[in-house]
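Supplementary Methods S3. Input chains for the assembly prediction are listed below.
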Amino acid sequence: MLFQVEMDVNIPLDFDPEEAAAIKAREKAYSQGLQESGKWRHIWRVAGQYSNLSIFDVESSEELHGILMGLPLYPFMTMRVTALCRHPSSVREDDS
Amino acid sequence: MLFQVEMDVNIPLDFDPEEAAAIKAREKAYSQGLQESGKWRHIWRVAGQYSNLSIFDVESSEELHGILMGLPLYPFMTMRVTALCRHPSSVREDDS
Amino acid sequence: MLFQVEMDVNIPLDFDPEEAAAIKAREKAYSQGLQESGKWRHIWRVAGQYSNLSIFDVESSEELHGILMGLPLYPFMTMRVTALCRHPSSVREDDS
Amino acid sequence: MLFQVEMDVNIPLDFDPEEAAAIKAREKAYSQGLQESGKWRHIWRVAGQYSNLSIFDVESSEELHGILMGLPLYPFMTMRVTALCRHPSSVREDDS
Amino acid sequence: MLFQVEMDVNIPLDFDPEEAAAIKAREKAYSQGLQESGKWRHIWRVAGQYSNLSIFDVESSEELHGILMGLPLYPFMTMRVTALCRHPSSVREDDS
Amino acid sequence: MLFQVEMDVNIPLDFDPEEAAAIKAREKAYSQGLQESGKWRHIWRVAGQYSNLSIFDVESSEELHGILMGLPLYPFMTMRVTALCRHPSSVREDDS
Amino acid sequence: MLFQVEMDVNIPLDFDPEEAAAIKAREKAYSQGLQESGKWRHIWRVAGQYSNLSIFDVESSEELHGILMGLPLYPFMTMRVTALCRHPSSVREDDS
Amino acid sequence: MLFQVEMDVNIPLDFDPEEAAAIKAREKAYSQGLQESGKWRHIWRVAGQYSNLSIFDVESSEELHGILMGLPLYPFMTMRVTALCRHPSSVREDDS
Amino acid sequence: MLFQVEMDVNIPLDFDPEEAAAIKAREKAYSQGLQESGKWRHIWRVAGQYSNLSIFDVESSEELHGILMGLPLYPFMTMRVTALCRHPSSVREDDS
Amino acid sequence: MLFQVEMDVNIPLDFDPEEAAAIKAREKAYSQGLQESGKWRHIWRVAGQYSNLSIFDVESSEELHGILMGLPLYPFMTMRVTALCRHPSSVREDDS
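Predicted structure tokens for the full assembly:
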């Protein structure tokens, strides 16, 4: 099942830069593991923003929730979640 | 260059149903031609809405604008356009 | 899988009252069939509004989308869809 | 009488984690006591958010207010309260 | 139980003035009957607007919903409903 | 002259509880004095919120402003002020 | 007593131009009469908009409401009303 | 040239009261100097808010910007600026 | 003096296409005349929208207002006007 | 390719003034270098705000993103990015 998730990241100005760098490194590894497993299908940067637009392919809302709660940057993020379906005009069977 | 485009369709209640069906058929053919050419990379339906979430891969804003103005349903649509970039955490070279 | 769906109904002032009554009767039958099948788990009226708050229990976003598109009142409705999960504090196993 | 209550939780980044854990444990016990008494009829997690959607069945607005003010997490919450009624299409007598 | 209800009235420019006058006369009679029964405790005009601010004292959300649906001007109105409680600083026992 | 005033109170999480209690006690005394004088005609709690809905009966905007600026909790409040009039459908001469 | 009133005018595209011109002429005469009486202290055009920003000096909200309801363009207007006071830094006694 | 400027002031709760008083005194002197020069034509208090509504009469946007940046309270303010014109219905030549 | 003006155009679906084409032709000629005179410094299309972003260089708000009111498409437009100044970091003397 | 970028700057009240001055000096140098290279085509100050309106001319969204992320004031900024196209009514070939 597909979900669009938009994530805005906001790290406070006075947050320790080393700790921030460590969290971002964990975030990258976490995201790449999920991309390789196929759960996190797409991730794009929004131009000019510390935000991403992602597409997840999961079994259920519970699985999505678990993945998002596990994001190392989750405490710094604001999220918008939208449930998606296959579009009747899509030419791709595997892009449902 | 990638753009996210969200399109909401709103056909008036009293619009002629046959004309609406003809416009939708032209819209589907137009969309599928662009999907096959690779310009319209993804199209998903937003659950519960007469709306789609699409990803376009075009040469420039001008090309995007021309494609969107050519949509048979354009006069019935509201659009939100967002410029995207490759994300530094993406594992896919071809998903920039 | 659970979804919250909020539906606002807006029938134009000059819409034929008999046709409106017929559509509402079909809407009621359609809703009750889905309630009896367990797909439409709850439906409440929002006090003072021609709106409802509903909980659906479906297999997927696609199934939800199909159900909502089939609503006889769909052309008169504005919808907000929210994906839900079981809450870790819930005492009810069957209310996930 | 039924009320929908949407609760968003926002604990500051620098709040003591042990104190937060203790408050959350009290919150869970408080919620479960009210669920068992039938006052807090439903609680669902909103996918991707530290938010819940709840349905309360109380005698009056005063009772609802007292329950919500007593939430251990109340100082960290933003609330939206909506009064609900039985829906004329509902098939359930006990879901008024 | 007390509810604040804010009502905005919007009669289309081309609505028949005689019919509008008849509806407004019925609205006034309906409102005054409910004021005399004590259900509609207060009604004030919002300065500069075709809107009112009202306080209702009813048994339940269902009773409120029934009263509001019965308003002759209901099809022309937008409503905002807010559940109220006695305030702990109030000096009036009868203003709960 | 009547004004509706909606007041939302927001005391920071780390504000000294004793000082907060002292300010609230002064607020209550201040409010009750004005209620007894007839200036602060009504005060209701908004269900689920640390907010009130109040009706003031004052000589002028200046008098209202002076009263509101004198609220011990004013530095913690957000306000919305709306000028009201007697409603032509009101049955109460003394509720103008 | 002073009030700021912002008025946006929106005449439908298909409204009869002669009737519109007649209403605007009555509006101008009505406004100028009130300006000369001192009730309508200031009127400015908002650049680029069919909107004005006005300052009224009236006895009460009731008087303001009566004046605004009497505007020939009132059925085409959206209004925002804000109660004003003398500012403690003002150097003008007569500009309260 | 005329501009409407709405200024909301928000001084943090923990800001030093003596320093705040000194800034407010400088603000008052600065404002009164500009009022006397005719640049700051009107200043009114918004009832119930720590906000003002002002009318400036300046040579250009640059002059306005310079004046506003010079406000001692500027770092504590949120501003909304609207360009105004003479209204065709105005009876005052000097109130352009 | 510089102003940013954002213009959204919305021609009703059932508006006569020939009349629309004639108005658009007049709009283009009007715009190009003002561009050549230097009053309308820049005009860009917003990608995916029937909207433009324009920069005007005029003597005053009055001149701007007159120009905008003269737009043949004005009755179909929604506008947002923002006063601009030279930026202290700008390297261009002639771009103030 | 052209983009409109609106940047609002918000430096906390308690930020070290010398450090702020140093960042602003770096920002100015950075901006002027990009202006001279032609990437940052225009920059204007929004009257009354610590905000600018800028036009960028870049190869791609990626290039824009890189430029914006490099702004010394980026951590203090909120951005809105809009993709622009040549307007069909523009008289300037070089202003696409």
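Chain J has a mean pLDDT of 96. Strands of chain J lie at 2-9, 40-46, 51-57, 77-86.
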